[in-house]
Model the fold of this input.
Amino acid sequence: MQTENERSDMRPDFEPRTIECGTIPAYAYKGNLKKELQKGTIGKQEAIDILEDMLIIREFEDMIIKLRSGAYESCAGYDYRGPTHVSIGQEAVSAGACYGIAPRDYITSTHRGHGDSVAKGCAAIRAMSAGELRARVPGCADTSRARLLEAALEDHVYRTIAELFGKEDGYCKGRGGGMHIADFRVGHLGANAIVGGGVPIATGAATAARYLEDGKVTCCFAGDGAYANGVVLESLNWAAMGQFTNRLARNKPFGLPIIYLILNNHYGMTGRADDEVMGVEFMARRAAGFADNNMHAEVVNGMDVLAVRDAVRRAAEGCRQGKGPYLLELDTYRYYGHSLSDPRNEYRTREEEAAWKAVDAIEGYTRQLLDAGVLTPAKLRALQKRVAGRNARAAAAAVKSPDPDPADVIKYMYTDTAADTVPEERARAVVLKDPEIKRTPNGELTYKDALKEALFEEMKRDSRVIFYGEDVADYGGAFKVTKGLLESFGRRRVFNTPISEAALCGAAVGAAMAGLRPVAELMYMDFALMASDQISNQAAKWHYMSGASVEIPLVYRASVGGGKGYGGQHSQTLESVFTHIPGLIVAYPATPYDAKGLLKTAIRDNNPVMFVESQLLYNIKGVVPAEEYLIPFGLADVKRQGKDLTIVTWGPAVHDALKAAAMLKESKGVEVEVVDIRSLVPLDAATIVDSVRKTGRCVIASQAITIGSYMGDIVSVIQEQAFDYLDAPIVRVGARNGIAPQSHVLEKAFLPDAADIADAAVSIL
Ligand SMILES: Cc1ncc(C[n+]2csc(CCOP(=O)(O)OP(=O)(O)O)c2C)c(N)n1
Done:
């Protein structure tokens, strides 16, 4: 039998054949409530709960519509400001799916996600024990389960509305709003205002569940519009990767436990999926492009809550048996426009809308409950009244609830926690083999071996740390930084990804939300731009947008190729771009010692870290202790003491600055102080300012092009805090304001060197 790390040869095989794409069932569900009750696949109470939750959703969305015209009585006069992407018409999708999975399972949702959020919360709350309910509503005086349940449901509606209104009591403390609502306590990993943005996050959560073997399934809601987005298609490919499905011999199947739900309401914003912006009649066909088994794709009547529940239940069961991923296209409709400012008459007819309303999910399901005798008309009326009353009370309370304190506007941008200790069950991971790390007799390592040692030590310390990227496994990465880690930890923890930068950065976010501490490698920093949404809108923002209810402990290792003659798309020094993204930590070590200490800190930190490395530095050597040490972020290192001039710098430019300092000492007897900031965010402003106050002169040097670079920010810090101490203008030395050329003659002219830094210093001495 093959072991996990072994793979079979791929031999040529040109035998003529045809490729079968199989068939995809559509609308196969023939059940109804009576049949489900008879089969025992649903109980009467659950059947009623499902209706109640659909009613809560509709009431909630109706409230938004009425708020606009002032017709929602319990909030008369309240000026709601914010998006209005209502999902009326799609209730069966939200409720059916959330009752198809287990309460502990995950969902990710969309900009039109109030329904998903309401349904997920309700389904999870209804399954809670009295003790769990008490923990959710500690203020509830009554201790009977029925009363606690009612209080928890009202609290759920209240917190959902409060979030919509941007209130401190909202699920995300008003930082996220309706488009980013999340409740991690019930497995809701967030709605997402970036179309398709949540799909790689869901995929990462499923990747974590597969690794942790915790039996959790992820249900990923996304619209038809999202299924034209690159990162979504990358995610499907990720989920169906051979290494995650059944191709490697193992004694049990272990595919990714994820259900992709295409909420096909037939329109993106206004663009028609059916005959305008897509080329397929059924979007479920997408699945055939990613997995030989078509990801068990099905098309389901999304206006029939029991059909949705049945399909999702079967998929969830399959996922738990290791047969994932699954893809279900749910055929549905939204009765309103993209938002309430869209009158929708430009792109669809009232007749079309009437045809969909004629198959309304709530009406159809209510009829079934009455026909099956599960509800009487009187009980139905009581239920409707209860729902309306609860929503109205919750909304009125939300209006009156406190707004966040303006003084807290940036509170929650970063967490100040780190994995200082490792839970017992994750500590001391299995090491199959130590990697080769060549330490010289005087204790020196190369920069890249220092990085490898850091990763090795942290992966050994904490089995929640996984490492992946393009070509990082057998090959050890394009620059061999991680050669040997596959053999140390096996393919479950060290694996190759497809060439899908957005998916690999997004999957890290989901995996982090689901309990892992991923380290993802970006082969060249230039490729981070392919993943900019996932890095900047997702990884960076979720801690804040969730009101600090989740931490995103991950590291993106990005390698800068400048100086090798690789031209404009492989040579950019882009750390400045990421300093402009609040929520990210940005570090760029210059020496092997700093590389190891900072990478270890990055892996333990509970914030997302953009960890920048330079290919020019990979082979430099320096003393790196074998003993444990960490270097904190926000602590600059004075690499050379001086009194006449300060050079503030980071990355490869540190070495040029040190050379320039030596040249200036020799040629002019000038004592230059070199401050290596090591991390850009957070910045150790105090060390910079102290140095400039002492020397009165400052050059700032990096390999970034000058325009728009972080060097300008450092200039500002100095002029704000040390203006009176300056004896000369501050000078910046960066790459020329252009595109990195391939010609090595041109690249030499393009990048700054020690002579440029020395010249700049002389100009202000
Ligand atoms: C990446 C991105 N592009 C565009 C938008 C603007 N936008 C918001 S919703 C939407 C339509 C999304 O269509 P679909 O995924 O089918 O969901 P639906 O709105 O129909 O529920 C668009 C274009 C966005 N939010 N994100």
The domain at 41-408 is CATH 3.40.50.970 (Rossmann fold). The radius of gyration is 29 Å. The chain has three domains: 41-408, 424-623, 637-764.
